[in-house]
Amino acid sequence: MTTSDGKYNIKAISTKLGIQPGTLRAWERRYKVIQPTRNAAGHRLYSEQQLHVLNWLIDKVEQGFTIGQAVELLVLDKNKSSSNMFKKEEDYASQLAFDIQEALLHFNESEASQLLNKAFSIYSIEKVASDILGTVFRNVKKMKLNNKVTAAHEYITISFIETKIKHILVNLPVDGRLPKVVTFLYGSQKQNSLQWLLYTLFLRHKGFEVIHLGEGISFEDVELVLREIKPGLFFSFCQREEQINELTHFTRSMQTLFPEMSVGIGGEGCSQIADSHCSLIGSNQGEWEEWINNWFISS
């Protein structure tokens, strides 16, 4: 999906911007600066690019301009050079990631939270989690490996990211028609939990109820959870390549115990799996979409 594709309905966009839907409709009719697309039912759908424009207009209004003056400035700037008015989306997302990272490395969680809230006001949940928080996660992990930051810096950063993503998980709605899912992070290293968290978020955003079992939980305890919950899907995440054989063996045994349960394996430690019972789910959202779509077709 590109930044020009419609993705937010008028209720969502008005909530993000803090203005009434009627105000948006009036701006569209009078100034024609924003022309959202319509879905099959005729409802407005706004793109991320249009969200950028509306945020810019509201900033001008808050600075004391009337909406008419703000629109005139917008048109004038577009005529000069639209690139001078807005930063490119990827550049701005990268800047936000850098700023959040710097705040966390200076132990300023309050500033990092403010920057993160700003990111959520502009981008989708998936983009903020994957492209912004994910970038910070990987950067700090790499810096720790190269001894450029301390274990304390790494701990603060990863704890902040995990807390924010888990908060999102709790607040996403569940589709009761879908089967329950268990995701399991094998191992004891918190710093390698990114893909597990992002995949859990991906599933929750799809409407699945997900029980996420974090690092340090034994195979025996996972089996007890599976027996009690009887999920339709079970995903294991491997943190290191040397763990893949034992994790594959465990996952295969769970498939034997629960033949109605579909299983998959992911994580940074998984490069390839030659096992008919344990398929790789992939390492990015495109591959995850393909895996879950194939599951929907076959189930």
Helical fraction equals 55-70%
- Given the structure, what is the number of helices? 12
Q: What's the overall average pLDDT, rounded?
A: 84
Oligomer: single chain
**Alpha-beta content class:** alpha/beta
Set out the fold topology.
Elements: H1 10-17, H2 21-31, E1 37-38, E2 44-45, H3 48-62, H4 67-85, H5 89-105, H6 109-122, H7 125-145, H8 151-171, E3 181-186, H9 194-205, E4 210-213, H10 219-229, E5 233-238, H11 244-257, E6 262-266, E7 279-280, H12 285-298
Parallel strand pairs: 3-4, 3-5, 5-6, 6-7
Antiparallel strand pairs: 1-2
Question: In words, what does this structure look like?
Answer:
The protein has 299 residues and is of the alpha/beta class. It folds into three domains: 10-85, Multidrug-efflux Transporter Regulator, Chain: A, Domain 2; 89-169, Methionine synthase domain (Methyltransferase, Methionine Synthase (B12-binding Domains), Chain A, domain 1, Orthogonal Bundle); 173-298, Cobalamin-binding domain (Rossmann fold). 59% of the residues lie in helices and 9% in strands. The protein has helices spanning 10-17, 21-31, 48-62, 67-85, 89-105, 109-122, 125-145, 151-171, 194-205, 219-229, 244-257, 285-298; strands spanning 37-38, 44-45, 181-186, 210-213, 233-238, 262-266, 279-280. The strands form two sheets. The chain has a five-stranded parallel β-sheet with strand order 4-3-5-6-7, with helices on both faces. The protein has a two-stranded antiparallel sheet with strand order 1-2. Helix 5 (89-105) packs antiparallel against helix 6, helix 5 packs across helix 7 and helix 7 (125-145) packs antiparallel against helix 8. The longest helix is centred in the middle third of the chain and has 21 residues, at 125-145. The two termini are 26 Å apart. The mean pLDDT is 84.
